[in-house]
Design goal:
This protein is an all-alpha fold. Helix content is 81%, strand content 0%.
Length: 279
């Protein structure tokens, strides 16, 4: 019962701290403290419930057991991270988003492409990754190239749609003003339409951060060398080493959050003029 009381006390303390923070002026430290307190509270409740109700560690490991596994398997986790995130997810993300941006500019320049390419892109985006992943693994092999190909398929269409929509965001009065200055298409694109499209472009980039990691991990379920986060999760589930599975999940969640945070930080720097970025 002591662990259950510990979980209840941790939840009450976290609740009171967050209520107190909500009454304070909004600063950078209060914005950072609120999610940190919530996360620590959640881990404490998780630990107390697992210990208090004596839940089997195979079904749900305690956070301390997961942390111990992370400490003892740091080299293994780093190798899986490098294979899945740095090679598969990141390369596919760069290729997919870069290709989508170039094609979006072409679609904006030549409107007839919009009627032909966007429906095809919508069709490809609707294909389930579970069905595409084994085909792409057969085409590109079992190494990181096939995972990058899956990521390209997943991030391409969201980036394409957001960029095309952003390039059309400038209003008619702004375009007329550029025409009065005798600005051609490319000068208008660089000086007006592309800056106006930046919030939309970063929206596609942020969506792609999570899709890239999911696509790379799922692709590894259908064929991978003996390294990788998806490979490790599938084999560890079969071996009932659930603490290692949760360790991989933690690393993946941390990598995805950091990747998204970098894109959000870059968005603040680039689109500082946008109303959504103003204090």
């Amino acid at each position: 019962m002591g662990w259950i009381f510990f979980a209840a006390a941790a939840w009450a303390l976290g609740w009171l701290l967050n209520v107190w923070l909500a009454r304070q002026p909004v600063t950078w430290w209060s914005s950072l403290a609120a999610p940190v307190i919530f996360g620590v509270t959640l881990l404490a409740v998780w630990e107390g419930m697992v210990r208090g109700f004596e839940i089997n560690q195979v079904l749900l490991p305690a956070p301390t057991a997961i942390a111990a596994r992370i400490g003892t398997s740091a080299d293994l986790l780093w190798a899986d991270f490098a294979q899945t995130v740095l090679k598969g997810a990141l390369s596919g993300y760069v290729i997919g988003c870069g290709a989508a941006f170039v094609i979006a500019v072409a679609v904006d320049r030549f409107p007839f492409l919009q009627r032909g390419l966007l429906p095809v892109g919508n069709f490809v985006a609707a294909l389930p990754v579970i069905g595409m992943a084994p085909i792409l693994v057969m085409w590109f092999g079992f190494d990181w190239q096939s995972k990058a190909a899956v990521v390209v398929v997943m991030v391409f269409f969201p980036m394409l749609v957001n960029t095309v929509q952003g390039l059309q965001a400038a209003d008619a009065m702004q375009k007329d003003l550029m025409r009065t200055y005798a600005a051609g298409y490319w000068r208008t694109l660089l000086k007006l339409r592309l800056p106006s499209a930046m919030p939309f472009i970063f929206n596609g980039l942020k969506i792609g951060t999570t899709l890239a990691l999911i696509g790379a991990i799922v692709a590894e379920f259908f064929g991978s060398p003996i390294v990788g986060m998806g490979f490790r999760i599938s084999t560890s589930v079969g071996q009932l080493t659930l603490d290692l599975v949760w360790a991989e999940i933690f690393v993946a969640a941390l990598a995805g959050s950091a990747f998204y945070g970098l894109m959000a930080l870059a968005e603040q720097r680039v689109t500082f003029w946008h109303p959504s970025q103003r204090n």
